Amino acid sequence: MRSRIVIFAFAVVVVIAFFYARRQPTALSSVTRAEALAIAESYVNHEWIPAEVNAFHGVDPEGIRVDTPDANFQPEGDDRGWWIVGERNVGLPYKWGGFDLPEEFDRGLREGKYAGDAYSAEKRRLLDAAVSARSVGVDCSGFISRCWRLPRSYSTRELPELCELVSDFAKLQPGDIFNKHNAHVRLFAGWANAERTIVRVYEASGRVLCRDLPLQPMIDEGYSAWRYHGLRD
User: Fold this and answer.
1) Which of 160, 130, 154, 135 is nearest to 225 (CA)?
2) Which candidate among 25, 78, 86, 209 keeps its CA 20 to 30 Å from the CA of 12?
3) Where are the alpha helices (DSSP H) in the chain?
4) How far apart are CA 122 and CA 104, in angstroms?
5) Do 177 and 164 touch, CB atoms closer than 8 A?
6) Distance between CA atoms of residues 153 and 144, nearest Å
């Protein structure tokens, strides 16, 4: 009788452990906070020299509208155009739907692909259907996916599924993100002031860059903070 009780108790423990394990999030990759920031820096500091063929404004052969963020891209009220043909530029350009590594970007330039593709409301409406295979670069969520070493690009709609919510902003750590659903995402690098009212972030916006932003306006705009399950100290 006692052996049966022991076996039964053991079986219960195994079943509980099985169901508990199934509830635990499984990280798709493993990356340290320092590694995530180092990857971000590699995008910010990437140097490249484009040719005329890498600039394009029009419809690509697949019928997708492309606007590279070069200096000639200056629609009214828009200052995202920045890179200059034939000169040394710094920072990987933004590309809607982009997920390129810096070395993949360089190879694409040599192959005559377009350097970046600016965001537009129409691209937001079309989502993946507006991604051009003829351009290279990285978008905001593709950039975060690379920093976290994810196997593919996860959109701002998907990234929270890989994370836990950081409800207390004071507990933010480097490598966490500020995410706005179906809009934009930024990588938290640290606090820019002692009062913890200004954050230092990396983001892909026109190009991949690092800058300081006031925290409260982001909260007011609907950003929430998240921590990737595969992030390690």
Assistant:
1) 160
2) 25
3) 2-23, 33-44, 102-110, 121-126, 140-147, 215-220
4) 26
5) no
6) 8
